[in-house]
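FORM 7B: Structural annotation worksheet

SECTION A. Query
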Amino acid sequence: MAILIPHASLRAAAWKNGGGSTTEIAISPKGAGFEDFDWRISLATITASGPFSSFPGIDRSLMLVDGESVSLTIDGARKVVLTAAQPMLWFPGEAAVSALVAAATTDFNVMTRRSRCRHQLEKIAAPGRLIRRSDTTLLFVADEGTVQARSGDRQFALSRYDALLLDAGDAPQWQLEASQDVAIFRVDLFI
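SECTION B. Predicted structure
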């Protein structure tokens, strides 16, 4: 059954290193922690340069949501700069990742436990049509504006940073309506 996850209902938790915060959007299984989740989707605000936490056995995707840019060094050699033009990065959770920020940024994060599931993250736009391709799909509104997600007689209104979690019992097609172009992050989870 579809679950609307309003951003206003979520709470941020500070990182142990003091360099930012994380806001969990959804996790499976429900109530899991960092050591036993199958998948976890969150927002992270990076306020200071420093290392990311290590998550062995986890595949991670980041997409820049807010801020000019974040520069990442992976395993001491590979350098990647996330910007509006190049907003996404995939990396293994056990990689040594360090961030360099000039100003605060907000990133959309997807983590999946490699031994249990995998994910696909992409940026789509509303208005448009969503055709489901996995049993679990999460839609996240990354822009200002309102999106109406409709399927049959079901309808949900989403604003910036709101999410809609769809499971196997939900309709395979959804119409995404908006009065202007709105960026949406689509996460498909394959278990």
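SECTION C. Observations
The chain has a mean pLDDT of 95. The CA atoms of residues 17 and 23 lie 16 Å apart.

SECTION D. Sign-off
Analyst initials: ____
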